[in-house]
# Entry
Amino acid sequence: MEKQHKFSAWYVFLGIWVVLIIQNYLASMLAVQTIPYSKFLSLLREGKVTEIAVSANEIAGKMKDASGDRLTSFRTVRVDPELSSILEQYDVTFKGEVESTFLRDLLSWILPVFFFVGIWYLLVKHMYGGQPGFMTLGKNKARIYMENELNVTFDDVAGVDEAKEELVEIIEFLKTPNKFTALGGKIPKGILLVGPPGSGKTLLARAVAGESGVPFFSMSGSEFVEMFVGVGAARVRDLFEQAKRKAPCIIFVDELDALGKARGIGVSGGHDEREQTLNQLLVEMDGFDPRVGIILMAATNRPEILDPALLRPGRFDRHILVDRPDRRGREAILRVHLKNIKLNDSVDIETVANMTPGMVGADLANLVNEAALLAARRNKQTVGMPEFEEAVERIVAGLEKKNRLINAREREIVAHHEMGHALIALALPGTDPVQKISIIPRGIAALGYTVQVPTEDRYLMSRTELLNKITTLLGGRAAEELIFGDISTGAHNDLARATDIARSMVKEYGMSASIGQVYLAPEKTNPFLDIGMPKRGEYSDATARAIDDEIRTIIARQYKRALDMLRERESVLREGARLLLEKEKIDREEIIALMGKEEPAQETPTETKPTIM
# Structure
């Protein structure tokens, strides 16, 4: 191997010393004597000047020395001839001085250069938005958090107990790696956190680093790829080099799908820079020694579009699902976010958790913040249950718009429409309990809404429950036809949801007697992996017509059922609509009082969204 020589500062000192010696020698050999101009005139009269060279301000030449045997060089600065003749008369020694223009000439060159360089720097900085300059493009942009900078632990993460249990093993390896390596075991190189947006994947990764007490490298997948080819690969190399120097540590890549999308997708092929960056990441994952103590973690909400090479054993070989929390998980998350909120005694965290099925951690954090803002807007000292109920409605249905002008006829239609939903929901078993009805517009297009709050999470539904659900959705339009003899456009959202349920019953759940126990829906593949026209189910045109007929039949039967039920309760429907027009909002107890009976026994509910007109 060729021996590498290191650069030393002594080489610089030695070079300077040699240059000074040479300069002194040449100065002594080529010494030029500077004499006053008066002496030059005296030498000239004595005949000791042998030759001269005259310039605008200076005279240089050679003169005889005192012995007259050797010539020496001299120079003198010219003086005005008239002035010199006068000074010579009085035997005055005089000489000339040349004004130095070095500093002026230097500044005349340097200042413009600095001016234009400064303008160029400001333009480049403005173009790149304050990002690192061109020479640092190959450096990674990871944010590095050292052990003392991470204040996130598992106590700050709630609702994902299964995911935390999976990650405990990683923490033990980072704390005591010898426990695993002594038996010949290897910790997984890569851990992929998969889950919907806002479920806490990034927070969970930071908690792992905080619990293990190791440096944490955080970077987004989109930060690797730049407009310059090769920059992303260079950043990947630099990231792993820094991680090896600080091992044991954790590298976290958020939004991995921006970097690790399957190669060759699309008609025109993949992007060269992105594919080169992905290839470099694959190489680095194969190259580092698992005994070093580098754990690569990544998060994505679109695992189906990731390149298969990333997901094979030896790379991201452990996949951890960070799913939507259940009721107990939501309750735990709410308790974490409510630590710094001043609550009054009316707040029941379990009830709030029941009102928010399907919400993830980010949604619940937003819910708590909205409730606190509402309490502050109402000049309250604490946050109560009404603020949480209002916050749920605001998140699900949108902001109240009391200033939206609606004519009397439309308000009457909306009131009967919403009462139709509520009466059907109260009369049928297996539907969500009705909590509130309102005809105050919300959001962009909602003119009224009926809030049905589940009491627990559901994972299975029977055929009867689905049919009851369709009937409830069609109750609004049935009320319009019964009272006004006409229908409006306000039921478009109800029709869309009812049709989706009926279609799923026929094509996916095998709940149609005429179609049979078959699955006719197309395979659910990611749209990015399909090239060409979208696929439909593998069935004939005759089957397609039968499916359409069966969907229409289900909708028609449940619509007739809703009409029949509302005819039996027409007086209650009219009275409820009148009360709703008067108060704009009515709750469940008032509706039950109108019906003259207690609310029927409700089976376990299923839906989280309000019925919106």
Q: What stands out?
A: The chain has five domains: 12-89, 102-130, 143-321, 336-397, 408-612. The CA atoms of residues 480 and 487 lie 6 Å apart.
